[in-house]
Design brief:
The protein is an alpha/beta fold. The chain is built from 14 helices and 16 strands. The strands form four sheets. It has an eight-stranded mixed β-sheet.
Length: about 475
Amino acid sequence: MPDGALPATLPIELKRDSSTPLAVQLADTLRAAAAAGHLRGGDRLPSTRALAGRLEVSRTVTAAAYEQLHAEGWITGRHGSGTYVTTTPPGARAVVPRRRPPKPPSQHRIDLVPGAPWVEGLDRAAWRRAWRAAADAQPLLRPQRAGLPEYRAVIAEHLLRHRGLVLGAGPGEQDLLATTGTTAAVSELALAVLKPGDVVAVEEPGYQRAVQAFRATGMRVVAAPVDTDGVAVDAVPAKARAVYCSPSHQYPLGGRMAAANRVALVERARAEGWLVIEDDYDGELRYDVAPLPLLVGLAPDVVVHLGTTSKIFTSTLGTGWMVAPPDVAGAILALRERTGTGPSAAGQRVLIELARHGDLGRHLRKLRRELSTRRELVVAALADADLAVLGDDAGAHVVVPLPTITAERQAIEAAAAAGITLDGLARHHDLRPRWHGIAIGYTACSRDELVGALPVVVRLLVTAVSGS
């Protein structure tokens, strides 16, 4: 083949009306030709300018196609000489672009399931700035098993300002570690501190991913019933080795643990050797009073506190934290060292930059204002229809109790038919459901969508309550 010329038997047809970009079409054609032997190792390709002229496309198209093929190893550039086909990669097969079936038109659904962050409210300029600044940081030579020191300093300041926790105060010292999130932290605690077969009491209804994380690591999970005052401490069996709870804003019922229950839980933990795992998944989000004191502040010697950025910002960061007694923190670090695991630095660096520029605090204030307004809208619509509402003036969801599990299922199915996704309490039980109702989240959708969906949801819930 003459230098820089493509074989005449190699037609290149670019479909300008296709949804596939022209550069991708060109790269697919040249790749298939090289894999099939129509282009051979050492063949010189036309310059991007010459090929663009032949195909009557922008040079940007040919340059992008060449860059992709170069990254995949199909072509190589020789300084001052041109671009050449390399030897066909071993085991390569002809790549024939597959015709993708047309996607069916998607039906937009309004998501009212709890657990999502309010990503619509992120300051995108601040978000991009933080990621750019994080990318400028010096790459780590060795893993930071405990987390970046700067990240832990940011979290310590966050806990002081927004949760009133002074690290190191109280009857014992505490260590602060970075985590990749609550569920991962639960698994680490089970593997590092507990033993296979240990009994762990988990709130019922409660966070089922924690239940599965404990079981996956060999723990025996027992249900600790929850009422409007939080976990029923007397119902926790004496043989328990750990108790998992969400005292500041119980998930999913939304209540707070009463002061008497907090004291009783701590006293039993100290007397019977329990480890109390405090999940503070959205403790910063209170609208009636200041955030409630943390259990770890009351009893740092027996409580492990878990927090996450997934409800403040987004799960994209993959960051969280753990405040634990030194022996527990030491066992976690030893586990990470043995297994070569630990929290990723990328999300930590982004949060560091968000805090450095004040964006963390600004976003939290903005988040509280928006969610308080949304909660008022939801509660007012439910109250106008004489529907009961469970849960404190906090967090990002409310619960409407229903009389039966059948009513719950019917409400969910009717909402789905109307293009609205709801969440029931049944799935938050490990055993036979004791609580029936709908948990309405108000963060995953826009405010306009929420306002538009509320009349439909209220009507469905009134029907479910009345049984008509």
